[in-house]
Amino acid sequence: xxxxxxxxxxxxxxxxxxxxxxxxxxxxxxxxxxxxxxxxxxxxxxxxxxxxxxxxxxxxxxxxxxxxxxxxxxxxxxxxxxxxxxxxxxxxxxxxxxxxxxxxxxxxxxxxxxxxxxxxxxxxxxxxxxxxxxxxxxxxxxxxxxxxxx
Length: 150
Hints:
Elements: E1 14-17, E2 22-24, E3 32-37, H1 44-55, H2 57-62, E4 65-71, H3 75-85, E5 91-93, H4 98-102, E6 106-111, E7 114-119, E8 122-126, E9 132-136, H5 144-149
Parallel strand pairs: 3-4, 4-5
Antiparallel strand pairs: 1-2, 1-5, 3-8, 6-7, 8-9
């Protein structure tokens, strides 16, 4: 579980997206950012979450939000995921888990009785000045935009 809460300054990050292009928190200054962390490309929950954000992307944009997804998958995996699901927003490849750890979303999980380290599905809504305004840790993958727009 993340240690970050509304009012905290969002940890700075730098990484590469599906095209190998450098992406940092600074790139979103002046815009509201939906920074969402998800476990794995092309899995059922992650696909329905990404598609919900895709289907409501115009609404998010009209309300001044930009969207950035983050997982530990490779750039190539992200490219396939974006192409397959026609996603209009970038995905950050965090294979070294630096961003995941900075946001406190990497850690022990339980699934089907076994414990392992993995990504906790969490979304951070960040304002134009880099402050966290909302932390969503009980993500409804099929209705995520409604949670963001609250």
